[in-house]
Write a structure and sequence with these properties.
This protein has about 675 residues and is α+β, with helices and mostly antiparallel strands. The strands form three sheets. The protein has a 23-stranded mixed β-sheet. A five-stranded mixed β-sheet has the order 26-27-30-29-28, covered by helices on one side. Strands 10-11 form a two-stranded antiparallel sheet. Helix 4 runs antiparallel to helix 5, helix 7 packs antiparallel against helix 8 and helix 8 packs antiparallel against helix 9.
């Protein structure tokens, strides 16, 4: 029997929320004080509880999260969020995340940690994490064991095929929680294929106790839980009793897909009536087990003909429960007799492993919710393109086959083929390394340039070239050697002329490329106007007149010394400036040392002598004119207050020499 994760009848919704409506509003009016708890967090907790009691689940989630943000060590905020998510029927993985955080807290004001651990274990059991269920629940003392915790242990024992342990838990539940029918439902679902053998007295007695709780022998049946009644029919000792209960359910319009199948099996309803019922159930889903058994119970002739008609144009849902825990792990949506969408959620946490979209029963695309991957098939199972986030992988022809399912025909009757997907549990993971190794082109965003895209070409998974584009216009070309970036050509001003070049060297110890040289050659005549070299010595060179001869040079050595060399624009002499960690040490023209005189303005130095008047004002005007970054470089003649001044800026320091004046 398969049911979906809507948790109708969940005790959290039916019991806890009802309790909130009666009791929590009173709590929220209390003036609660706790020395070690932020009062604002308590206020958000109060609002969350009120919202939950009113059925305002989104507000309850928001208030609970605000509480947890202010007091993350307080379990009530996290647990309140989980309860609101449960009541709002949100995915299990979201609920578990909140419960896990709540369970790690030791400070509680209103809620109870044991209740939290019970909920945590039950949802872990839903996701088939049975070992963790037993580990966590085993740390709770028997007197503090809640119904949720006991139910989780029962589910875990069945999931681990520890049937006797599961039965012992069920037996305990009959005494401790006699009105909690969830234990009965799990027992009936998990034991339905067990043959009731009179020699197994213990099991026979346990079945008897379970049936007594359902009270099938009373004159008036309670049809409020049709699923439970119909699940228990399997265990009735005689065919007459089964037929009696099935007839009573049928007469009251009560059924499930499994119950309809049993009614058909025992002749309580006709094949035509059963097929009409199955059509109504198809929207929510019919288990594959039930679906495949239907034709074997139909009469030849009209009933089989109607079944053929139904499956040839079937537009509904088939559910697979491969691990038999009562929750679907594969959902197949059909359109006009063919699979339209196939969804796989192996651990049943609401985050689907993959979703296959089909056309005429053939997969054409796949999505993976856990990593945001979308793939497109050229012809199933050959993938043509994959998208992961903002990255696009164009695959080599016939390179990557990914086959999560085999869609095979199931011959119900000789002239009708109905295609039923078979899950391939051994499909390889589509990791990033796998995608790169099978790609011929990878397109991805540029991290430091929003809106730009890089298109990289690969051979055997190794990059050989790439193009950077902005508004579909290339602005950089890259070349690679042995998979490492070796050079880059850049259009810095986006005018279509690629004037900047970067040269790289592979660093095999780190597996990355290191920038070694950057230069600009605007007219592309082979003479750079600007060049930077990175190594033990950081070096910058300028060729202002593009004659192939360096006009200025700036070097930074390992010991912190900075050396600036320029050609004097008037005399043609070489000027050398030496500084240590930003402090000027010497200035020399053609080897002749000039006197360095600190000016009134910080980081401003005069060479030879200081102007007789307006020294500070001149310095400020020069700094304002060349208000560059700390690493900016200037070598220029400037006129200030009718004075011609040579200005050199290197690092943070300005150097100035007045031309044509004597001290």
């Amino acid at each position: 029997m398969v049911f979906t994760l809507d948790f109708k009848g969940d005790y959290v919704v039916k019991s806890v929320v009802n309790f909130f409506i009666l009791g929590l509003l009173f709590f929220c009016t209390l003036n609660i004080h706790a020395d070690d708890t932020d009062s604002r967090a308590l206020e958000f907790l109060n609002r969350a509880i009120v919202s939950l009691g009113r059925g305002e689940y989104q507000d309850a989630v928001a208030y609970s999260r605000n509480c947890s943000l202010l007091s993350p060590e307080l379990g009530d905020g996290w647990y309140g969020e989980a309860l609101a998510l449960i009541a709002g029927k949100q995915p299990v993985y979201e609920i578990l995340a909140a419960l896990e955080k709540a369970g790690s807290c030791n400070r509680w004001i209103f809620y109870n940690k044991n209740n939290c651990l019970g909920q945590y274990c039950r949802y872990l059991a839903v996701t088939t994490d049975y070992e963790t269920v037993l580990e966590v629940s085993g740390k709770v003392s028997p007197e503090n064991t809640t119904a949720e915790l006991l139910l989780a242990r029962m589910m875990a024992f069945y999931g681990l095929n520890r049937v006797q342990d599961a039965r012992e838990v069920f037996k305990t539940s009959l005494d401790r929680f006699p009105f909690d029918t969830r234990f009965l439902q799990v027992f009936f679902d998990r034991e339905k294929d067990t043959v009731v053998n009179s020699s197994d007295v213990g099991f026979v007695n346990l079945v008897g106790e379970a049936l007594a709780k359902v009270d099938l022998h009373s004159g008036t049946l309670d049809f409020s839980d049709a699923k439970l009644i119909l699940s228990s029919v399997y265990f009735l000792p005689s065919e007459e009793e089964r037929i009696r209960v099935l007839r009573a359910c049928s007469a009251n319009g009560v059924s499930t897909p499994e119950g309809t199948l049993e009614m058909l099996r025992y002749g309580v309803i006709s094949g035509e009536t059963a097929l009409e019922a199955f059509k109504k159930f198809s929207g929510d889903g019919i288990s594959l087990e039930v679906f495949l058994e239907i034709p074997s119970l139909l009469k030849p002739g009209r009933e089989i003909s109607l079944f053929n008609e139904m499956i040839s144009g079937y537009s509904g849902v088939i559910l697979r429960d491969d691990n038999g825990d009562g929750y679907w792990d594969t959902r197949i949506t059909y359109s006009k007799g063919n699979p339209y969408k196939i969804e796989r959620d192996k651990n049943q946490d609401g985050l689907r492993d993959w979703i296959l979209d089909c056309d005429g029963g053939t997969p054409v695309s796949i999505q993976m919710e856990n990593n945001g991957l979308t793939g497109y098939y050229k012809k199933y199972p050959v993938l043509e393109k994959l998208e992961v986030g903002e990255n696009t992988f164009l695959l080599k022809p016939n390179s990557l086959k990914w086959t999560p399912v085999s869609i095979k025909p199931y011959a119900f009757v000789s002239n009708i083929l109905f295609y039923v997907p078979e899950i391939n549990e051994f499909a390889p993971d589509l990791t990033e390394n796998v995608l790169y190794s099978h790609s011929s082109v990878v397109q991805r965003p540029v991290s430091d340039n929003p809106g730009a895209r890089e298109q990289m070409e690969l051979v055997n998974g190794i990059p050989v070239a790439s193009v950077f584009s902005e508004n579909n216009k290339p602005y950089a070309y890259c070349s690679f050697r042995n998979g490492f970036l070796s050079s880059m050509k850049i259009d810095m001003d986006r005018d279509g002329s690629f004037e900047a070049y970067e040269l790289y060297e592979a660093d095999y110890s780190t597996g990355s490329s290191q920038l070694k040289t950057f230069y600009i050659d605007k007219d592309r005549d082979g003479n750079y106007e600007y060049r930077e070299d990175y190594g033990e010595t950081y070096r910058i060179r300028w060729d202002f007149d593009d004659d192939g001869v360096t006009d200025s040079e700036y070097n930074v050595y390992k010991d912190g010394r900075e050396q600036t060399i320029i050609r004097h624009p008037v005399t043609g002499e070489n000027c050398e400036i030496i500084a240590q960690n930003g402090v000027p040490l010497s200035v020399a023209f053609n080897g002749t040392v000039e006197k360095i005189i600190p000016g009134e303005v910080s980081n401003f130095f005069w060479l030879g002598f200081v102007p007789a008047d307006n020294e500070k004002d001149i310095a400020l005007k020069i700094q304002e004119k060349y208000n560059l970054s700390h690493t900016g470089f200037v070598s220029d003649l400037v006129k200030v207050d009718d004075r011609e001044i040579l200005v050199v800026k290197t690092g943070e320091n300005y150097y100035a020499q007045i031309i044509g004046e004597q001290k």
